[in-house]
Amino acid sequence: MLGNEETVRVDDPTTPPATPATPATPAATSQPRHTTSREDQMTSTDLRVGLCATCLHVRRAGNQRGSVFYRCARAEDDPRFPKYPRLPVVNCIGYEPDVDSGAQAHGDNR
Fold first, then answer.
1. pLDDT tens sequence across 83-102
2. Helices marked H in the chain — which ranges?
3. How many independent structural domains does the chain possess?
4. Are 88 and 54 in contact (CB under 8 A)?
């Protein structure tokens, strides 16, 4: 041992318990956000699927195991579109909001 080190015994009742260092999260340190932007209104499905979740041209197909597949109907006539696009789709030139799904039109086809 060097001269200035202090020895602390684990079983010593005067030793304060170690506390793990946890970073402060914004939710714990600030007031909740109250916004109405499209990103805040998106459901977890919207986030996983992207634009296809609210597109007029999407065709959903499920299987017995509970998986859901998103097929692009534009792929039937236009080879620029993949039949089963990689999700989440964040930009698509063929995106058209489905008015029945409550989608908002994006001028830049985000």
1. 999 999 999 999 999 988 66
2. 26-29, 38-41, 44-49
3. 1
4. no
